[in-house]
Every structure is written in structure tokens, then in C-alpha cells.
Amino acid sequence: MKGDKEVIRALNKVLGQSLIAINQYFLHARVARHWGLEALNDGFYKQSIYEMKWSDDLIARILLLGGLPNLQELGKLYIGEDVPEIIDCNLRLEKQKYDIISDAIALCEEKRDYVSRELLTKLKDGNEEYDDWLETQHDLIRDVGVQNYIQSQMDDHD
To answer: What is the 3-state secondary structure (H, E, C) of 28-97?
Structure first.
């Protein structure tokens, strides 16, 4: 199947964002685990796995359209050095991804590639769920204070 070159480019741009997210969220998960923040580790790690699965779906779609998945042009990771900064960095990436996915969805609509649009809409929905979770963490830090928030993220089993 021969897909539209602009759609393939847009899918590759979304793929690039997803690949950044895999690495950023995985690193943040392991930093949180190192700090003993198991609940945060779990949230970040789970999202990195979702991103990996979505990347797999994007790669399959790009290949089906006759394109070559671009796994080489990775952008900048936003790495936080403390808990609030980590959450802010992840929110920043989610906002960036949202805009890129939204643009790709609009292009797919214009090019009448409804299958690619459906895939991107699924990714956008998943990213919105994670964005909501991050916003909740951000609000909790503001409402209870960073020290109380951090304590709430620790593993009680030690």
C-alpha cells in the first residue's frame, strides 16, 4: 500500500515524540525508584510502556503505508532534578506531543487517511489521560506541599 508522503512524515514526527517519551518517562521512573518513590516510579514506568506500544503501532502503520520509520531523529529529553521538576518536564513533553499529534490528525483528515487518524486519536486519548494524571500530581504538590507529596509516594513495605 502506498501512503501519502505528508501523512508518513507526520506519523514519523509523532513517532519521534513517542520515542522521546519512552526514554524520558523510563529515566524518570528509575530516578523515582532510586529515591524510594515507588508510586511515582509505577506511574512513569507504566506510561513509558504505553509509549513503547504506541510506537510499535506507529512503526507498523508507517511500514504499511510504504514509508520508513525514522528512529534516528530523536529530539531533546526534558529531565527533572527533583520531583516537581520531573512532573513539569513530563507535562511539557505532553503539551508538545499533543500539538504534534493534533496537527497530524488534521492532516490525516485532510488527506482522508481515516485509519491513520484513528490510530493517532487513540494515542491522543492516551496522552490526555497521562496529562490529567500529571496535572493531578502537580495539584497535589501545590495543595499538600512537596514534602508531604513525596512522603505519600514512598513504598510503605520497607
So the answer is: HHHHHHHCCCHHHHHHHHHHHHHHHHHHHHHHHHHHHCCCCCCCCCCCCCCCCCCHHHHHHHHHHHHHHH
For residues 14 and 101, the answer to whether their CB atoms sit within 8 Å is yes
The span from the CA of 126 to the CA of 47, in Å, is 9
The model's pLDDT over 78-103, given as tens digits with 9 standing for 90+, comes to 999 999 999 999 999 999 999 999 99
Rounded to whole angstroms, how far apart are CA atoms 79 and 62?
A: 29
The tens digit of pLDDT for each residue in 14-43 reads 999 999 999 999 999 999 999 999 999 999
**For the whole model, what pTM was predicted?**
0.92
Give the relative orientation of helices 83-110 and 38-64 as an angle to the nearest 10 degrees: 20
Residues in the chain: 158
Neighbour-count burial of 26, counting CB atoms closer than 10 A to its CB (0-12 exposed, 13-18 middle, 19+ buried): middle
